[in-house]
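ok trying this again, last paste got cut off
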Amino acid sequence: MYIVPDQSGKLAVVTGANSGTGKETTRRLAGAGARVVMAVRTLAKGEQARAEILAQHPHAQLEVRRIDLADLVSVQEFADGLLADGTPLDLLVNNAGVMAPPTRMTTAEGFELQMGSNFLGPFSLTIRLLPLVLAAEAPRVATMSSLAANYGRIRFQDLQWERRYSPTLSYAQSKLADLMFTQHLAAVAARRNWNLMSTGAHPGYTRTNLQTTGPNLGRDQPTRLYALLTATDLVPSQGVEQGAEPLLYAATSPEAIAAGYYGPSGRLGLVGPAVTARPPRRALDPATNAWLWAEAERLTGVSLPTRVA
């Protein structure tokens, strides 16, 4: 089991902190001494998760704040709240996401739900919080991707899947976009001499509500994808204690490197202790990564603030 190094005195933000890998990441960061802002869409669920973590770690420093990554106004309000506090942000963990809604759904701004929630929302959040991140001594931005990124393609002419929506391929595109963002942020940091480490991770096949909630959005009956994903005897799977380790490693390990990508070491990359993973080649093209970054800036209306540029 990966042991999180001492995080005393550090401030972390974890999105999707009320369940799954986000909750486990929060629990272990707080257990190592970090003060953690639990960024959640539903405050009641966040408070329940906070209470459960406090039952294990009574001295944990936890605060629940609301954010909806499918609503850029909510993202701005969350970021503005932290900026008003003015506390340097040592660690931003972009963990939250949605997976494979059976029909095309949209965000508050009209983006395809997965591209909006999994990529554009976290992109906007990260850029808005950069002044606090860069004020920290040795900050990191750790972003959760997925093995699905391996078969992802960026649909340059139809980024929002307005034609022939595919639940799984749109999910794969969004998680490839996360990896491309991780790589480009690392490149920007290097060019501008920022003391910022951008890393990525994937959880293999970790049993969380991600595989069940998304495929059943808008459905009264479970989908075939739900049935497949919950038949855990068909493929190797693991619990969140193990599944959160690549993200925790990316976020805290002294051995992690800029633009590093981490995932499970076991069969097919689905289970096991965290090791360095091989990102898909499509995530490593600087020109394409720069194009996607520029497109994200255009779509979200958020760009690098001049005071940290």
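PB: full thing came through this time. The two ends are 39 Å apart (CA to CA).
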